[in-house]
UniProtKB/TrEMBL annotation:
Any GO MF annotation of the entry: DNA-binding transcription factor activity
InterPro entries: GAF-like_dom_sf (IPR029016), HTH_MetabolicPath_Reg (IPR050707), Tscrpt_reg_IclR_C (IPR014757), Tscrpt_reg_IclR_N (IPR005471), WH-like_DNA-bd_sf (IPR036388), WH_DNA-bd_sf (IPR036390)
Protein name (record): IclR family transcriptional regulator
Keywords: DNA-binding, Transcription, Transcription regulation
Key word DNA-binding present: yes
PANTHER family: HELIX-TURN-HELIX TRANSCRIPTIONAL REGULATOR, ICLR FAMILY, TRANSCRIPTIONAL REGULATOR
Residues annotated as domain HTH iclR-type: 23-85
UniProt keyword Ribosomal protein present: no
Lineage: Bacteria, Pseudomonadati, Pseudomonadota, Betaproteobacteria, Burkholderiales
Gene3D superfamilies linked to this entry: 3.30.450.40, Winged helix-like DNA-binding domain superfamily/Winged helix DNA-binding domain
GO BP terms, alphabetized: negative regulation of DNA-templated transcription
PROSITE patterns per the UniProt record, alphabetical: HTH_ICLR, ICLR_ED
Amino acid sequence: MAALEPMTIGQAAETDKTEKYSVPGLERGLRILAEFSRQTPTLTAPDLARRLQVPRTTVFRLLVTLENLGFVERLNNGRDYQLGTAVLRLGFEYLASLSITDLSRPILERLRNETGYSSNLVIRDARDIVYVQKVAPSSVFSSSVHIGTRLPAHATVLGRVLLSHHTLGQLQQLYPEEHLQAHGPNTPGTVHDLFRLLQTDKSRGYVLEEGFFESNISTIAAPVFDDTGKVTAALGLTVPAVHIPDTDRDILVAKVVSAARELSMSLNARNI
């Protein structure tokens, strides 16, 4: 792996300035909220102190403050905490503030109606993808994915679309580790493996994979561009099958690419 470029004097000065004006208590409080996830929906004060490597008394004071504001809730056993409704309220307010979610809704609904499959819109948050819009058909198939679901970008089809225009240097900054975390047999092993895969995705203009992240799910996805020409979201179609029939592949790909292009045009995208 190529070495990362050293920090410049200007970058170092900016870092010093940022640290000077940062608020440690607020940072720790936000880090506490970030520790809760689908894998760890409940945590105790000792758990958080160990994870954040701060004194238990500090964690306890922060938890009391967050609890008073509704950002965490204490369970009946008195020891475990979970995220509170205030976090949910902020999340929905954030999603509502994104014009792209409103613009995408009718496009996703039409895609769902024309194909009979779930259509989704995701954005990237650091190394995760976040589902911000979903339109599902009325069927017996029940997906565990919902609005707000987070999945690893490097290991998912939608994530590959969001990363497809990254340079190798940008990917190395995002994934400085030697080996990428595996989420199945198809996960790229290194950042160089990921970059090679993304280059192919970029030249193709869409991604179609069968069983890439989940063995029984096939996905078709295409990039959505903003008015600066950057990939701002990924629009995808979820097919609950190990294999997409050959007779349907080209039709479904065309519909997904067309839907992504329509949404990009709604965002005044350039050069699409």
